[in-house]
Amino acid sequence: MATTPDQTIISGLNLPAPLSSPALIERALARGEGQLTDRGALSTLTGRYTGRSPRDRYLVVPAEQHSAIDWGTVNRAMDEATFDRLFGRVLAYLQGRELFHVEASACADARHRLPVRLIADQAWHALFSRCLLRLDETLFDPATGVTIYSVVGFQADPQRDGTRSEVFIVLNFARRMVLIGGTGYAGEIKKSVFSYLNYLLPSRGVLPMHCSANVGRDGRSALFFGLSGTGKTTLSADPTRLLIGDDEHAWSDEGIFNLEGGCYAKCIRLSPTGEPQIWNALHFGSVLENVVIDPTTRVPNFDDDSLTENTRAAYPLAHIDGAVPTSRAGHPDTVIFLTCDAFGVLPPLARLTIDQALYHFLSGYTATVAGTEVGIVRPQATFSTCFAAPFLPLHPTRYAELLAERLRRHGSRVWLVNTGWTGGSAGDGGERIRLAYTRAMVRAILEGQLDQVPCVTDPRFGLAVPTACPDVPVEVLHPRQRWADPLAYDQQANKLAGLFTANFAKYAEGVAESVRSAGPGV
């Protein structure tokens, strides 16, 4: 990372001084970028793209680092010459346009602070970045920071620019730059910073993690890993504990710290009773994406998914009652892997050995439910390694090695919690495990109520399942007992076990035999 963006180019854009959140809201409204809700949040539409475009993400990597990258469908290469042509066209597009910029940072631990400068052609993208990044008084340093260009109005020409489509997300690690164009989905900004840190932090011996985190009044912290829909945000937002963050953290020799300064929560079917902390955070200064708003009352309809199921809310951590002011905590006592098993066969609660933890960390399993995506009529297994596959430039085993070292050194307990279906598969006789039961399991884990409870080993998945858990019926802990037809359970469980084994084959050569054998068996 020897070179930095050309400062004469940036000054040539006539970049204005950074605006405050109220000023950005005024500009967004004046430019027709959104409308205010009844409680003062800025409601926006992202256009054609209502989610990330992972197939349009490219990396420009220094030659000496090329072998460290896990090249493939997630990490696609772009050469410097192609990048330069695209960057030149982006700069030409920006000339003479009204621009907005934010100077902020990532990482709550000052020892690992990453300065971030955002240059955007949309006022609301700047406001979004003020919600998600960390605002501080330190000026941007191009020698140590990263500059992000978010250019919604510019679309790439695949024939001319070497891209797959009009959308592009290009991380140039050599020049500390990110180019984003052709999409209005602001989550690309957030995840580009996360991807950059996933490249940068491991070289410092720091583990970046796609997880939420909270801490008890006794100072004991916990991590919650999980893919979308598994309950990561919901279960970490606990009124009896303090929130460190809802999505991105790092684990260093000093403890854990939030990478962000805010939250980016899914808000489909949001309610004041179900998730009161998120509900109360959505006032002036926050941003709603693709939420249907009543044109007369300006009241959001969080149950309406006509624009997308992936409705989102961005807000600063300061909007959350009970958030940890420093966004830091000590080494976690507990690590929880969340999965939503729509096949209805995984136990809802299990204690993991370190080998099992590494197996399930590299697997990153959850399931897609029928009806959530076009063409899906039965549950489909989803494996996203390290619970973060789209954001990992390095090989997954690099992150797994860091996790193993942390777990062994600090003695953190690891648990698997399944928030999915029981008594049958989704859409085929099963029902979702009650949230009250899942909350009771998490509470029992965090309060140490299961430490002395004996376990039985699930014969197929090899998991240690507690024989009892406070406030949870015993039969709920053993999924085979919940199926009307045990043989049908066996058939479905064998199917899932086979999917685990087939998926893990690509990591087998890079891990110890004890990890390879820690998975399920048919």
Beta-strand residue fraction: 15-25%
Q: What kind of oligomer do you see?
A: single chain
Could you state the CATH homologous superfamily of the largest domain?
Phosphoenolpyruvate Carboxykinase, domain 1
Low-confidence stretches: 1-8, 370-377
Distance between the termini: 47 Å
Number of E-state strands: 29
Helix coverage percent of residues?
Answer: 25-40%
CATH fold call of the largest domain: Phosphoenolpyruvate Carboxykinase, domain 1
- Sheet having the most strands: 9 strands, mixed
Mean pLDDT: 93
- Classify the secondary structure makeup into a structural class: alpha+beta
CATH class of the largest domain: Alpha Beta
Number of domains: 3
Description:
The chain is an alpha+beta fold and 522 residues long. The protein has three domains: 7-35 and 44-204, Phosphoenolpyruvate Carboxykinase, domain 1; 263-319, Phosphoenolpyruvate Carboxykinase, domain 2; 333-516, Phosphoenolpyruvate Carboxykinase, domain 3, CATH 3.90.228.20. It contains 14 helices and 29 strands. A hairpin with a 5-residue loop joins strand 10 (207-215) and strand 11. It starts with 6 loop residues before the first helix and ends in a 6-residue tail after the last helix. The relative contact order is 0.11.
Question: Briefly, what is this?
Answer:
With 522 residues, the protein is an alpha+beta fold.
List keywords for this structure.
single chain; 522 residues; alpha+beta; Phosphoenolpyruvate Carboxykinase, domain 1; Phosphoenolpyruvate Carboxykinase, domain 2; Phosphoenolpyruvate Carboxykinase, domain 3; 3 domains; 9-stranded mixed sheet; 7-stranded mixed sheet; 29 strands; globular; disordered N terminus
